[in-house]
Design brief:
About 70% of the residues lie in helices and about 0% in strands. The protein has about 425 residues and is mainly α. The chain has one domain. The longest helix is centred in the C-terminal third of the chain and has 28 residues. The chain is globular, with a radius of gyration of 21 Å.
């Protein structure tokens, strides 16, 4: 069912009676920029300007392979300032290009805000973005048509950092190789990304993660054949749950209250979101307006935060990135009913093996793995739990070939799972329907 049909069904069923409260693109961008500014203010509350400047320098000059927590590299203040500034720069670019603000844009910008604490910084994403810009020029099209791909494509930003700060190569060779490789990846990203939704049929919301995983495999294989082997990284901070939890609760609460302030009829429109499968593309802003969407974002963020705290996991750069990815994609496919089964499945997967739900790979899987939410939304909670269970196993090994150079490893794994499982599910369902006839 497409977006128009779902909207008509919602209206005819009386899901909501009041008209959609439309906000201008600049207003929505301003709201997103508000959260970026909040990150910056929080950073300056946590650290002195001198600490932030020195911390930013360390962040901008570090290798960014998974898992590199910027809080552990530059300190709390520098990490949040990096994330906020990066998001503000992106908001400005969206404004300059006059890109239409949609649920996908909101997902992209909130994901960028989260990953500003974990893998993306003020230096390493721009070569990929520029590569996508060159592709738009090559196609004689507006960059606004590809700007989402450009910023989602920051998944491959660690390749730039890994090459630039490699100790095995000389600087005169490292710099052009890092820039050239990233430009090339950005240039080929749009056509590859446009093709791959046909394989997972929109049941993996992180299409660029799937795309970046395939491209990352090729790049790593190429460089490994010449003896360039990235070393694994594991920088993971802990002990900050109280201060970060308080900060996140305030932000999430502001989303829920802000949604009601924007549209007083938001609660009546939430059932329309909850009745959606979430299969991409499902733009909740176009469906019910920004007010109910913002509430859905807050509710999904609250679920993610509760899960982190219940399993006693750490709040840090990577887990906040996962949390803000859930929040962002709650404007484009995710809602409480379709993410909870996936998280349940991943948690059950930890109970069946000698692992813990708060282990770094598995807490990230529980957060980022909600990319498979459309499976639960379309085929029911039981198959959603099964998809999460499969994801909890696959994510532990599939990321190895890319050597941590794709930040959206869960999107790559989920793309494979959706590509394999969805046709099987549909085949069995069609067979059962035929037998009933």
């Amino acid at each position: 069912m497409n977006l128009k049909d779902l909207f008509k069904r919602s209206r005819s069923n009386g899901s909501f009676d009041s008209p959609i409260q439309l906000l201008g693109d600049n207003t929505i961008l301003t709201i997103i920029a508000f959260y970026a500014i909040t990150f910056i203010i929080f950073g300056f509350v946590m650290s002195s300007p001198r600490e932030i400047i020195s911390g930013l320098f360390r962040i901008l000059t570090v290798r960014d392979t998974l898992i590199t927590d910027y809080i552990g590299i530059g300190g709390m203040g520098a990490a949040f300032v990096n994330a906020g500034l990066l998001n503000l720069m992106a908001c400005v670019l969206y404004r300059i290009t006059k890109a239409k603000i949609s649920g996908m844009v909101v997902a992209c910008l909130f994901l960028l805000l989260g990953f500003g604490l974990f893998g993306k910084n003020l230096v390493n994403i721009w070569s990929v973005v520029l590569g996508v810009y060159f592709y738009a020029r090559f196609r004689r099209e507006m960059f606004a048509n590809y700007i989402n791909v450009a910023f989602f494509g920051g998944a491959l930003a660690p390749i730039f950092s890994e090459i630039l700060y490699s100790s095995t190569l000389s600087l005169p060779f490292r710099l052009p190789l890092a820039v050239g490789t990233s430009l090339m990846l950005g240039f080929i990203l749009p056509p590859v990304a446009a093709h791959l939704p046909k394989t997972h049929l929109g049941f993996n919301l992180y299409n660029i993660g799937f795309t970046a995983g395939l491209m990352g495999n090729l790049i790593v294989a190429l460089y490994k054949s010449y003896g360039f082997v990235p070393d694994p990284v594991m920088i993971w901070t802990s002990g900050n749950n109280t201060i970060l939890g308080t900060f996140l609760i305030v932000l999430i609460t502001s989303m829920i209250l802000g949604g009601f302030w924007i549209d007083r009829q938001s609660w009546d429109k939430l059932p329309t979101i909850l009745s959606s499968s979430g299969q991409a593309p499902t733009d909740f802003i176009a469906l019910v307006g920004f007010g109910p969407t913002l509430i859905n974002m807050g509710l999904c963020g609250l679920i993610g935060l509760i899960y982190i705290l219940l399993v006693k996991a750490d709040l840090n750069g990577p887990t906040i990135a996962g949390l803000f990815t859930i929040i962002g994609f709650a404007a484009f496919g995710k809602h409480p009913k379709n993410i909870v089964p996936i998280m349940m499945g991943i948690f059950l997967g930890t109970l069946t093996r000698s692992v813990h739900a708060n282990d770094a790979p598995l807490i990230l899987a529980a957060l980022f793995g909600t990319t498979l939410a459309p499976i639960a939304g379309k085929f029911g909670w039981l198959l959603g739990v099964l998809a999460g269970l499969i994801h909890s196993s696959a994510v532990l090994s599939v990321g190895i070939p890319k050597a941590g150079l794709n930040l959206y490893n869960n999107g790559f794994v989920a793309g494979m799972i959706a590509t394999v499982t969805v046709p099987v599910i549909r085949s069995f369902r069609n067979n059962v329907d035929q037998e009933k006839i």
